[in-house]
């Protein structure tokens, strides 16, 4: 239609030129009006004027039709832009990514080009009316009306085309936009979807915050420290688009006049205050000048990173439920959330941050925690206070704190296992029992603790001879444990000591019936450093739980509810954190374990970094009555066969640095008398083994089966070419004396 209109205007110009030519000839002739030739020329001039009037009306009608088509186009484009904004809002809280902005830019630019072109054509028509006008000229009023309509539509398109392409976000938390910290840099990007710029005009965008702040008590005010302007040159605009990228903005709270320091004494918490960042650009093109404005989604401004979790809950709740994206007073009366909106949003937190969302069973468990197991969730609504503060189970963790800690744990330590579907995760203890009791012994699953921040536990089933079904749960692993030993290795190498102190791995099948090694074998492959193997005997760190004979005898006496019948096994992790203050090795040294002199200083860093945490995690909680059995069952293979040169200096180093444990008023470690005789060093042994008292260690021979611990035989001594791995089974650092208790995790 535009081409047709252009052609019609061109024909109109030609027709007007013909009229002007004939009109000049007619007015220049001085013949009497009664002359037949003159009369004929006047008739021709009148016909030309009639034709000109007809063509002018046709051109106006064509411009009206084209304007109607362009109006329809804009009416179709603007909802598409609103859909993109809604999609962007969901993407900010973890939803599907917002795409299609480049296509919108093409559509908006094409529509704006047509409107600007039509505006220019109307200007030409206005010029034609100035050259030739007559009574009843349709161009006098028709052109002005069309031009006003085109300008209104064009301004509407331009104002909507100025958008925030990337919402404010700090570089250190890219997965949680719309949260800003005072004094920290953040980025934000704006774009004008109408990609039209004068060749000599630079466009400058200016940023401000809280242009129209709400009138509420205690509402904080902020200043932008860095430059609040960004200039776009024509060269960059033509090559990159009309994009203003603010990469180094920083906020600072304004000082209060009374206290000299910013304060918040209003009704809203800091994490519930919503602030809006605004942008303004003075746009000029083809004589049209207009100030364009756009705003970000509301942001939450914190002063400390420990407020990040609750601030993200506020961002999630607002963008999920607010009908007005600029409502800064939303949390004065926050809306309630139905499950059909909240459930997918919770799944987005995992899919966007980790890679895999929540399935229907996992969402069902979360729904029951929020709404109750017996409640009907179809019409139920959850309040904002219950979402962030409701303790589930009562007296334990608030729901959002519990969920957010799990999210961090999965992202930092369990991402591969989670994405591969090996972690069931969100399953209640009652559901856990219903699932496991139908499976064979040794079937286990991984679920998140409901009472511990960021903890994951392993539960397995054992079928007794009397048809009883027992569910055991290991004390939950937290990030402190998983930083030292990955969960896949813990599962693959986990050991449970039986009444004969024989270690065995009770974890055989991942629910429903996937062999353990098939599920976790690919995660525990290690790269072999041949240079290191030549220097040291290789060792492995494993987790061990101790099941005492007297505890097993007391199991039938425990009366548990059917849904809560679960027994907790304490676990042992070889490489714990830094040595604690409660470790004292003097009683061990006095027990007859003469470990000889320390090795050369070159081995000290290795000892400190490898076995020092082992001693802390395995020996610290052991009391007087259980100290010797622990040494018999765990340290004997190590001292005898594998780690003799490594263990010696570590024991010495730890005993010098770690103070004596405080066992309370009723517990005290009694020193064991020093042996009366000392074996003379044997000259044919290596120098670091000559002082080892192997005679007193002969009692350990019958306590464990060395063949099961080292299937490849004893490790080779120094000077040989290869080294076999030796397994160390330390005492659990979670070990406690007494019977097993029902799991609270």
What would you say this structure looks like, in words?
This protein has three domains: 2-161, STAT transcription factor, all-alpha domain (Glutathione S-transferase Yfyf (Class Pi), Chain A, domain 2, Up-down Bundle); 170-306, Immunoglobulin-like (Sandwich); 472-658 and 682-745, no CATH class. Helix content is 41%, strand content 14%. The chain is built from 23 helices and 23 strands. It has a six-stranded mixed sheet with strand order 19-18-13-14-15-22. A hairpin with a 2-residue loop joins strand 8 (277-285) and strand 9. The radius of gyration is 40 Å and the shape is elongated. The model is unreliable at 549-682 and 714-745 (pLDDT under 50).
What would the keywords be for this entry?
single chain; Glutathione S-transferase Yfyf (Class Pi), Chain A, domain 2; Immunoglobulin-like; 6-stranded mixed sheet; 4-stranded antiparallel sheet; elongated; transcription regulation; p53-like_TF_DNA-bd_sf; STAT_TF_CC; DNA-binding transcription factor activity; cytoplasm
